[in-house]
Amino acid sequence: MTSENQFLLPNGVDIADLPKISLHDHLDGALRPQTILELANAVGIDVPETDPAKLGDWFLSQCDAGNLVDYLKTFDLTTAVMQTEEGLTRVAREFVKDLVADGVIYGEVRWAPEQHLTRGLTLDQAVEAVQAGIEQGIDDAERSGDSIQVGQLITAMRHADRGLEIAELAVRHRTNGVVGFDIAGAEAGFPASRHRVAFDYLAQEHFPVTVHAGEADGLDSIKSALFDGRALRLGHGVRIAEDITVERSDDEGTYVSLGETAQWVKDREIPLELSPSSNLQTGAIAAWGSDLVDHPFDVLYQLGFKTTVNVDNRTMSGTTLTRELGLLADAFSYDIDDLEVFQQNAARGAFLPLEDREELAEIISAGFEDAERYRD
């Protein structure tokens, strides 16, 4: 890697130029610092820093808390400036533009409408405001010669009791940009089973579900996501590695066995929405260490789990998908073929019809081939 903003693979390919898919990307975790300042000023909200660069640094320092609960406190500021139609639309439009700049060709943006009602918006108005911004961002991309698809993942807060209401909201907007459902927030003590009625409804409606699990809680949370939530993907899911046992390690290699839950996730090719930098900040990988090389990402990848790479919260981690891929390439000596696997895994896991997922896979293959051919 050559600089803070340019991530080159050993063959000279710039990761920024590769087509990418983003599955785990929070809208309220992806605001530009300058936008936060302008929106806060418009509605009279105090901010900890008035300089964009210093505000960005403030988010980074606050989020290096080592636990999810403190990490989530920074969202008090971002959600506060996203309570109007204008604020939601602007943030969504800039979100799409930032995806395009990151080389993303398909993205899913997750957010919780129930957290954006303090200034009079209804749930439906909030969803429509975000969709308007997404469509404006897509139009911006087309005018500049780029192409991107973006779908909304409507999220319910797992500690609240609005799961069914939010699930019905998501289904109501399935023809207006919403592609799936999620639950998020403080994980420990709030299993997916609390929202079983919502998940039953979604299953009856044939509506895709991903669930935050295996980040701030362990295997029981993952099991609940899979069996109560019928999750097609695991939001983070990093702690599935707790169900992997090292049997022995010698000169010939390391031998492991998988527990029943890990085996289920692997055999059914359930994508793991791993977010390396965020997982370090929240302490999700504390059982294995505190540096990126300690992240079980590579173990999961080598064992054949469907690993995907994500940013989680761009603002809180000061990151991009390009950067996350670059950090992993450095830590585990990945090459362009490895990075393509992660994108193909994401394409297969996207909440799109089969034909659209196959088309995404073809675009990924062609883009990676072109990148290598250009360098050759």
UniProtKB/TrEMBL annotation:
Cofactor field: Zn(2+)
Keywords: Hydrolase, Metal-binding, Zinc
GO biological process: adenosine catabolic process; hypoxanthine salvage; inosine biosynthetic process
All copies of domain Adenosine deaminase, residue ranges: 19-364
Sample GO molecular function, one term: adenosine deaminase activity
Family to which the UniProt record says this protein belongs: Belongs to the metallo-dependent hydrolases superfamily. Adenosine and AMP deaminases family.
Protein name: adenosine deaminase
